[in-house]
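hey can u run this one w/ nicotinamide-adenine-dinucleotide bound, need the structure tokens asap thx
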Amino acid sequence: MTSAKKILCIGAGYVGGPTMAMIASKCPHCRVTVVDIDPERIAAWNSDELPIYEPGLDQLVAAARGRNLFFSTDIEAGIRENDIIFVSVNTPTKAFGLGAGMAADLQYWEKTARQILAFSESSKIVIEKSTLPVKTALAMERILNSRVNGVFFDVLSNPEFLAEGTAVRDLEQPDRILIGSRETESGLKARETLAEIYANWVPREKIITSNIWSSELSKLVANAFLAQRISSINAVSALCEKADADVTEVARAVGMDSRIGAKFLNASIGFGGSCFNKDILNLVYLCRNYGLEEVADYWESVVKINDYQQERFIRNMLGAMFNTLAGKRICLWGFAFKANTSDTRESPAIFVTRRLLEERAEVVVSDPKALKNARMDLAGSAGRVSYVEDPVRAAEGCHAIALLTEWDLYRHLDLRKIFETMEKPAFIFDGRNLLDHRRCFDIGFNVYPLGKPPLTHF
Ligand SMILES: NC(=O)c1ccc[n+]([C@@H]2O[C@H](COP(=O)([O-])OP(=O)(O)OC[C@H]3O[C@@H](n4cnc5c(N)ncnc54)[C@H](O)[C@@H]3O)[C@@H](O)[C@H]2O)c1
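ok here u go:
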């Protein structure tokens, strides 16, 4: 067990909240405070309705909140009173100026560094938890150590590898914890201080250390590899549709090669979420900055295939439904970017809805957890959109169902009953290959899976 520590996290989002709840739960001798500039978010963390949905998170937070886990908007006091500061603010893609659409927008990050400098009265360890471009720690160090007043800051990189939807499990049993630091005496000491915290529940052999730049880069590369696998199988799905092959069969055969492995080989409508797109674009921007055009092009193609897959989905719908969607009612099953989360950031469902509205279709959005976010994402969209949580009712009177999120509940619906309430011919476009396609076809649906021959009645 480590000695008692006073830990602060700046940024109470999808990463900051769950990560700190896990540290508080596993280190009851430490006091953990999470601060944010958004008072509504903090109020939600202090309520029974947390601002994000993650399986197991409610219980984790409820057990530690008020004991050694606190949520607050008092950033100044948080900085003054704590010795170890995680920074987990958002680092979205820059929307303006040089690098717009590619580079990371570091304004929130830099603002945080300046706040830490302004309010610190003693030396601290500052930990990059956000995903950042390589060499951000250098800028952080320069800002933090720009005053000569006896207060010194060690900057560590400790990227977060959790996946939304399985965050609590990932935090409890991580594949690895990565800590990057300067290889100075003070940097190595800070590295060990952080390692000791994780060692309260993570086996030591899973806590790996590296130089700080390797650590920053590892996070971008890990996300690029994951996204690359999705784009690879999605590219193959397009070929399977032309070649009368079945992408599930191909993926099974390929994935049984132990050098390749079976995970992340499900063809789908494409990846979404707040990270993959932004992190790859960030990597591409870095490569271009270093003059590595070929390397940049290689990684950029991962994003291009993802865009292509989403557009292909719409074109398949159009082609199957007699080249017009105007006036047709289309039900979306799922709006979250993946199952078991309420997060809709960069969800393919946003693109699909916008494209369907462009085609003048009427869209009925259904999702068990993400309707609140869906409403915000689609606010101001021109066209007819309605929101119905129950997937059975959502499909009533529709011409087609487009399954976009792999929520388990969609496997267990009474499809025969649903078919009876729909317009005919009724279509299913399975953007996750989740349903039993033969069964859907036997009920009467025209079925369009991804990467497999369609099953149609005409
Ligand atoms: N979401 C994921 O699955 C995931 C996984 C790994 C890493 N990351 C990375 O972690 C970082 C955070 O991601 P997230 O999904 O938690 O973002 P988020 O948008 O959910 O949360 C960020 C929070 O930071 C707050 N914030 C911004 N500026 C602030 C400031 N100056 N002071 C205090 N609070 C401030 C925002 O109000 C927001 O609540 C990003 O860099 C992201 O790339 C995310």
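The chain has two domains: 6-202, 212-458. anyway lmk if its weird
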